[in-house]
From TrEMBL:
Organism whose genome encodes this protein: Corallococcus llansteffanensis
TM ranges: 21-40, 60-79
Name by which UniProt lists this protein: Uncharacterized protein
Upper classification of the organism: Bacteria, Pseudomonadati, Myxococcota, Myxococcia, Myxococcales
Keywords on record: Membrane, Transmembrane, Transmembrane helix
Superkingdom, natural source: Bacteria
Length: 247
C-alpha cells in the first residue's frame, strides 16, 4: 500500500455543513424528551399524550428507558453529533500544502506528526504531534477523500522511514496491540513470523448500525481481527507490511 503526496503544492477545502449529524442530534433529543415526558406526567405537564406515557411504562423496557434515556441522549449528542458543534466554530476553509495544514489559526507541520489514528466510524484522522493532538474531522470539509489521501500521503512516508530504521536496528515498534520486529508481528504475546503471514487486509463491518473497519491478518490459516481504531498509525503499519510481505 503506497501513499504519495498530492501533486498540487497547495489545496484548499471549504467548510461544509455536517448533515449526517442531524440524525444523531434528533435521536439524542428524542431520548431526553421521552424521559422528560415520563417524569413530568405526574405534575400534569403532558409533553406526550397520556396513553403514550402509560404504554411506555407498561412495556418491557419502560423503566430501563427511564433510567438510561437521558445519559444515552447526552452520549449520542456528544459523541455522534459533536461535529455539528465543532462546525459552528470552524473556519471557512482548511488548507493543505507540502509543509502541513492550516485550519484557521492552527498550523500543523507534517514533520511534527509522530503518530496517527484512523477513526473510520467517526470519519476522523487523529494526528498526534509535538505540541498535542489535532483531530481532522473529514466530514466537515469538501472533497474529503482527496483531503484524507493528501494527509496520509504526507504523513505516512515520513513515519514509514522511521519505522524502517527502528526495525533495521533491531528495535521493536509498537502499533497499539501489535508489535512489529524483524522477526514478524506479535499480537497478544504470540509471534506471527513473516513466513507464516499469508495475507493482510482491511474490511468494513456494520454492527448494530455502527460502521467499523477491521484489520484482518491471516497467519497459518488463522484470521485475527483487530479494530483499526486501536492500531496506532495503522496506515504506516499497512504500508510496511505491504512492502515486506510477498505478493
Amino acid at each position: 500500500m503506497v501513499y504519495t503526496p498530492a501533486p498540487l503544492l497547495k489545496r484548499s477545502h471549504a467548510l461544509i455543513f455536517p448533515s449526517y449529524t442531524l440524525f444523531w442530534l434528533g435521536m439524542g433529543l428524542v431520548f431526553i424528551y421521552g424521559v422528560a415526558a415520563i417524569l413530568l406526567a405526574p405534575t400534569s405537564v403532558h409533553l406526550l399524550p397520556r396513553f403514550v406515557v402509560e404504554s411506555l411504562l407498561q412495556s418491557a423496557f419502560g423503566y430501563f428507558f427511564l433510567l438510561v434515556g437521558i445519559p444515552c441522549g447526552i452520549y449520542v449528542i456528544g459523541w455522534r453529533a459533536s461535529d455539528l458543534f465543532v462546525w459552528t466554530r470552524a473556519p471557512g476553509a482548511l488548507t493543505v500544502d507540502d509543509q502541513g495544514l492550516r485550519d484557521g489559526t492552527t498550523r500543523l507541520a507534517w514533520r511534527d506528526v509522530h503518530t496517527l489514528v484512523e477513526q473510520h466510524q467517526e470519519q476522523r484522522v487523529v494526528l498526534h504531534h509535538r505540541d498535542g493532538t489535532y483531530r481532522l474531522r473529514l466530514g466537515l470539509w469538501s472533497d474529503a477523500d482527496a483531503l484524507h489521501h493528501a494527509v496520509l500521503g504526507h504523513v505516512v512516508p515520513r513515519l514509514l522511514e522511521g519505522v524502517g530504521r527502528q526495525v533495521a536496528a533491531g528495535e521493536p515498534v509498537r502499533f497499539g496491540p501489535l508489535t512489529l520486529s524483524d522477526a514478524g508481528l506479535t499480537h497478544k504475546g504470540q509471534l506471527m513470523r513473516w513466513e507464516d503471514i499469508e495475507s493482510i487486509r482491511l474490511q468494513d463491518e456494520l454492527d448494530q448500525g455502527a460502521a467499523t473497519r477491521e484489520l484482518i491478518i491471516v497467519a497459518q490459516g488463522k484470521p485475527r481481527k483487530i479494530d483499526e481504531a486501536k492500531v496506532i498509525s495503522a496506515p504506516v503499519l499497512l504500508a510496511y507490511l505491504s512492502a515486506r510481505l510477498p505478493g
